[in-house]
Structures are given as C-alpha cells and as structure tokens.
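Why do we bother with a discrete structure alphabet at all? Because it lets us treat a fold like text: something you can write down, compare, and reason about line by line. To make this less abstract, here is a complete entry for Methylthioribose-1-phosphate isomerase. Read it the way you would read a sentence in a foreign language you are learning: slowly, and without expecting to understand everything at once.
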Amino acid sequence: MIHIESVKYDGKKIILLDQTKLPLEEVYLEIETLKDLWDAIFELKVRGAPAIGIAAAYGVALGASQLTETEYVSFFEKYEEISDYLASSRPTAVNLFWALNRMKKTLMDNKNMAIPDIKQILHNEADAIKKDDAEICTAIGEYGLTLLQDGMTLLTHCNTGGIATAKYGTALAPIYLAKERGMDIKVFADETRPLLQGARLTAWELMKADVDVTLITDSMAAMVMQQGKVDAVIVGCDRIAANGDTANKIGTYGLAVLAQKHNIPFYVASPLSTIDMETSTGAEIPIEERSATEITHGLGKQTAPDGVKVFNPAFDVTPNELITAIITEKGIIQAPYSEHLKVLFV
C-alpha cells in the first residue's frame, strides 16, 4: 500500500503535505517559523488530531532550536511561550495539547542537561511521538479488523487515514489492513461539508490504495442506510470525554442517530491520546466555530447571499449511548464507558 507522510521534520524545517490543495495538487510546505506552523494548523493545511499533535511536537522542537538562551530558566520561559502559542491554534483536538504536554514533560525531565543537548532531546521526543503514533494506528487497525467480515460495506465521515496520522490512520486503519490481506471491503465516504474532507481527502486516499470507495453527499447517508447498503459506520474523533461522549467532525452525531435507527453498528476509532479523562462529559468539550466564509464561499465561490447569518461549528458531540464500541490500541471497549475507559489507563 502507498504510504504518504503528511508531517516530517529535518531539524531545520517542518515539511507538511498541504491538505487544502488535495485532490488536485500534491504540494509540500516547508515550515521554518512558528507563525507559519500556527497558520498551517488553523487553516487545516495539516489536519487530523494525531497529525496535529505530531506537527505541534515538531513545532516546539523547531521553536526551541531557534532560541538563543543559554540558561535553563530563561530557556524554559521562552519555550512555554512557544507552546502556549501553538496551543491556541485549535481548541477541540485534544492530541494537540497531549503532544505539547508530553514535550514539556520531556523538557522538565532533562532540566539538568546542557541547552544544546535539550534541543536534540526535544527533537528526538517529537520523532518518538510520530513513531508511537504509527504503531498505535497499526494496533487500532488490528483490533478494528476483528469487527469486519469479507464483503462488508462501511460508511465513514471526514478523513481519518494516513494523511491525518503517522500511518494507516484511525478509522481507515482496519480498512487498509483488510485490503493488504486480500479482503473485499467497500466504503461509502461522506463528502463532509463544508470543507469536503471526505471528497477531497478520503476518496483520494482510498483510491490511491485501490480501495473500492463511493463518494456521497452528507445528506445521502440516510438513504444508503435505508436501502441496506451499509453494514457498519466507522469514524475517528477529536476528543472523547470520560463518559464516552465523542467530539468529531460536524455531521458525525447525525450519522450516529441514523445508524441507531437502522440497527447499524456505529464504531469510533481512537488512540488513547484522544481520550480526555479530565473532561467528564461531552457538554464540557470546547467546540471550535470557524469562519462564515467556509459556508458562504465554499472553496472560494460565493454560494449564499451577502450578509446572511451563519453558524459554523467545526465539530459536534455524539452521546455515548449511540456508540456501539470504541476501538483503541489497547482493545475494543463497549458501554458502560465511564467504567471501561478507566481500565485503559491502568
């Protein structure tokens, strides 16, 4: 299977696949400043919770490499400014904060080292975060594969593949592993309004892997379920609360309601780093609201009247009772999630 690296770092610059250019162009950005990385995260040039975390880890490593401070205390103060700045780019994806916290802990654990050594240690830790994510995605794929049977048709939403992670993806990981092992798995991909990540990214990525994918608009999901064309829904996520409530790309909640109506399993694929045990329920998850122009001027063309009011949340929250199971790198869990999520962290 073709594997595309969406985030790389050579010690001087971060190299990102610009996902806003897909599917028409495969463009790589060379990021040398923190502002450019902040913009890339905010503007969805790099997207997908794990990929955002990896990019942020490389971001603080890059920022640290450019600091001129020679004493730990002043170096740490400047480092915290870098970390806080990158943390402000997107509020919902918990992997961003998880990666930044892991990098900060590494810095604090090595406070007695010389500053040049600390800079290299931070680079090494960012590499480790990326390597760990690739292994996590593989494990999620292996567990998810146990839920699939040859000949099944799945429906997915947004993009949860290799370009959103270090390798394989989350919700797409079992699909890729099934393909590698000769299973016949078909996919319906929601286009995912308003930014069309399903159409631009998921369809493109699955076609590159020679997976049988059919693109539909978001509003067609109910019909294909009603017609019996979907055996299961599998989605990724940006944050899971301690009770199993799950924040994911806007439109996910509607799919979960439809799946329950049609007696179709609804699976969430998630690394442990996306599970936020400090957030009790989905009601506490901050939901990012984005620019009105993403709706009124979709992909640059005006499609709504001037001055119309717009509500544009980037995510919604699916209540835990609508989720059949959560697939993690440590196994598959089911309700009661408040009890079973805790076990994953023991």
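What the structure line is telling us, in plain words: The mean pLDDT is 96. DSSP finds eleven helices and 14 strands in the chain.
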